[in-house]
Design goal:
The complex is a heterodimer of chains A (about 350) and B (about 300).
Chain A lengths: L2 E12 L2 E12 L3 E5 L6 H9 L6 E6 L2 E2 L10 E4 L11 H11 L4 H14 L15 H13 L5 E5 L7 H18 L2 E6 L2 H7 L2 E6 L2 E6 L1 H6 L4 H6 L4 E11 L2 E5 L5 E5 L6 E7 L4 E3 L5 E10 L3 E8 L4 E7 L12 E6 L4 E3 L3
Parallel strand pairs in A: 3-8, 3-9, 6-7, 7-8
Antiparallel strand pairs in A: 1-2, 1-4, 4-5, 9-10, 11-12, 11-14, 12-13, 14-20, 15-19, 16-17, 16-19, 17-18
Helix pairs in contact in A: 2-3, 2-4, 3-4
Chain B lengths: L12 H11 L1 H22 L2 E2 L5 E2 L5 H7 E2 L9 E2 L1 H33 L3 H12 L6 H12 L4 H8 L13 H26 L3 H8 L4 H30 L2 H6 L7 H8 L7 H31 L1
Antiparallel strand pairs in B: 1-2, 3-4
Helix pairs in contact in B: 2-13, 3-13, 4-8, 4-10, 8-10, 9-10, 12-13
Chain lengths: ~350, ~300
């Protein structure tokens, strides 16, 4: 598979502040790639560097082998779906979608036909003659998508495009976006702070924090094998405990848990000593003899799940999730339970 | 003005209407006293007969309009031909006002853009600086301008001292001087509404245009200008209309060749030389012209919105 975007040691500084600290990553052609991180982590800055709205201070951005770091945005074969859509308010929906084609010199009849097909694809044919202000938020979002896809860019950049929509619409659009990406075969680079969005749509995800890429991998990789505390904590829910590592061998660590029990688990850390371990709350079961002992303080009913807010006998806060099945015995608040760590529940982190 | 669709007031109709009538009385009184009444007076005067020492005789006649458009010879007994004197003055005024508007736009738009793209806290300072000249009376400013550009004034003397010219430039009493005066007088009227429009402009639109392969120039033409058009039109009207009727700048800075409508009307109401009905008629014709321009604009605007 060929490489669509190759980002090499990109540094972006604003005066004395550094937004990107030497980011390197490569994105394959036809991939749905997500930049995920909290606000201020540099994900939008990186996207804007790819689009050309920001110059990079150092480093290279290669698009199918060509360094585009010095090109103006209008000379880059990438298109963007903006967070607030940025539709041209004085143009009809059709004119908006046809704008990129017009700039590329496509004839009026050809671009009208192509823009029409794009609107069909996003189910907005009936609205071609409306002005953007006459559409709902979800419809404007789809116009922005059609407008960015119409010139058939090599790479489509999406800057938190779903954040302004309500939950139902957002969930529907996730499926629609993924389908569109598969239909068109265009590489999507999607920026979001919403991990659920990232996990449901992406082929691969880059988790970013403080201007650095923390981890790159599939949804399963970053959820099941987080490398550090930031990733483990940011993706999903987890319990982080400080532990003593006795021995590391062949990617497996021997760890003494609070309370004295010893287990083995996969590890990202390479040296023995004090480290953090991540224990996913849904990979625990209540059993007679467990690896950890905790006192239940509160039971939260979540519909499909029950969340137990507990405290380990050694004092740390600990969360447990149980499926809300009819058989499940729900421990009463105040009771003490023994917890068994299932396969893959624990992972030792690098930092 | 342009573009806004005011939603019909909601709520229980009868109660609302009962209140709104009385509440609007002050507005109607204001409009009546300061707008309708003066215009009516002007209209009536334009149909009266002039008296020699200024003032009017209450004999209704079309003489003023006749004098404006037709020439019946020295003694008024020849077959009428079109009188070009006043039409030429009007045409020259329109032309001068249009040119002044264009110059104000060319200078005012980048100025407004500059101010609107400064950090929010310094914008107020720039706007204040734009309005500073308005703290001084227009007459004084225009006279000062005349002193600045006269043959042995500071402009010519410094240019000669720098060796750029050998003889002073004859600027006073030229069209150029009038343009300078109009430009100086009305520039803020362009800057302020354009600033208001640019300040609301969403710069993500420019990024979107660049992203879709538009060059800077095309972005300006296809996106920026259409979006801030209401501000530009407002600025153009605010400069064009007073420029058309201006008399201070043409009087003080222009010569006989740059006689404009404002001066013509002004003259009709001065001392015993004046002709009130003729001045009123000229004012009515000027107002009609302006109203036609505004109506055409309003029509075009509604069509654009109704799309």
């Amino acid at each position: 598979m060929s490489t669509a975007i190759d980002i090499r040691s990109v540094v972006k500084r604003y005066g004395t502040a550094t937004a990107l600290h030497g980011v390197s990553l490569s994105i394959a052609d036809n991939e749905f790639f997500t930049l995920l991180g909290p606000s201020g982590c540099g994900k939008t800055t990186l996207l804007r560097c790819i689009a050309g709205f920001e110059d990079v201070t150092e480093g290279e951005i290669r698009l199918f082998g060509q360094n585009i770091a010095g090109l103006d945005p209008n000379h880059r074969p990438v298109n963007t779906v903006f967070q607030q859509y940025a539709l041209f308010p004085h143009m009809s929906v059709l004119e908006n979608v046809a704008f990129g084609l017009k700039m590329k010199g496509v004839s009026l009849s050809d671009r009208t036909a192509r823009a029409g097909r794009m609107l069909e694809m996003v189910h907005l044919s009936a609205f071609a003659d409306r002005l953007p202000a006459q559409l709902s938020g979800g419809q404007q979002q789809r116009v922005a998508l059609a407008r960015a896809l119409a010139p058939e860019p090599k790479v489509l950049l999406l800057d938190e495009p779903l954040s302004a929509l309500d939950l139902k619409l957002r969930q529907a659009m996730r499926v629609e976006l993924k389908t569109l990406q598969e239909q068109t075969g265009i590489t999507f680079i999607f920026v979001t702070h919403d991990q659920e969005e990232a996990l449901t749509m992406s082929d691969r995800i880059a988790v970013m924090s403080q201007g650095r890429v923390q981890q790159i991998g599939t949804a399963r990789d970053i959820y099941e094998a987080p490398v550090n505390r930031f990733v483990a904590d940011f993706i999903g829910e987890t319990n982080l405990l400080e532990v003593t590592v006795d021995r590391i061998e062949g990617g497996i660590a021997r760890v003494t848990l609070p309370g004295g029990h010893t287990i083995t688990c996969p590890t990202a850390a390479t040296t023995p000593g004090k480290h953090h371990i991540s224990i996913r709350p849904e990979r625990l079961s209540i059993s007679a003899a467990g690896d950890l002992t905790a006192t239940v303080e509160r039971v939260v009913y979540l519909g499909t799940d029950l969340q137990l807010l507990a405290r380990l006998t050694t004092g740390e806060e600990f969360h447990i999730r149980l499926q809300n099945s009819a058989r499940a015995q729900v421990p009463a608040p105040g009771s003490t339970v023994a917890l068994h760590l299932e396969e893959g529940a624990a992972r030792l982190l690098a930092d | 003005m342009a573009g806004g669709m005011t939603p019909a007031p909601q709520g229980n109709g009868t109660g609302y209407r009962a209140i709104v009538g009385p509440l609007l009385i002050p507005t109607w009184v204001m409009i009546g006293i300061f707008l309708v009444l003066p215009v009516l007076l002007m209209a009536v005067y334009s149909f009266l007969t002039k008296e020699f020492r200024g003032g009017v005789v209450w004999d209704f006649t079309l003489a003023a309009y006749d004098q404006f458009f037709l020439n019946r010879g020295l003694f008024g007994d020849e077959p009428p031909v079109i009188e070009w004197t006043y039409i030429t003055i009007f045409w020259r005024s329109i032309w001068q006002a249009a040119l002044a508007t264009l110059i104000c736009l060319i200078v005012g738009f980048p100025t407004a853009w500059f101010i609107a793209t400064r950090p929010a806290r310094t914008r107020a300072v720039w706007l204040f600086l734009v309005t500073v000249p308005y703290w001084v009376n227009l007459l004084i400013r225009t006279v000062s301008l005349k002193f600045l550009i006269r043959e042995n004034g500071p402009l010519n003397e410094s240019l000669m001292a720098l060796g750029l010219i050998t003889d002073p430039l004859p600027l006073v009493n030229t069209n150029l001087a009038v343009q300078l005066g109009l430009f100086y007088s009305y520039l803020p009227f362009m800057v302020l509404p354009v600033y208001a429009a640019v300040e609301r402009y969403n710069f993500a639109l420019s990024e979107a245009a660049a992203d879709l392969y538009a060059s800077r120039w095309v972005t300006l033409r296809e996106i920026v200008l259409p979006v801030v058009k209401p501000g530009i039109i407002a600025g153009c009207i605010l400069v064009f209309v007073p420029s058309l009727g201006a008399f201070l700048a043409p009087d003080l800075l222009g010569g006989a060749k740059t006689f404009m409508i404002g001066s013509l009307i002004d003259e009709q109401f001065r001392g015993s030389q004046g002709n009130w009905p003729f001045g009123a008629a000229a004012a009515m014709i000027l107002m009609t012209l302006v109203l036609i321009v505004l109506t055409v604009y309003a029509r075009a605007q509604t069509k654009g919105d109704a799309r």
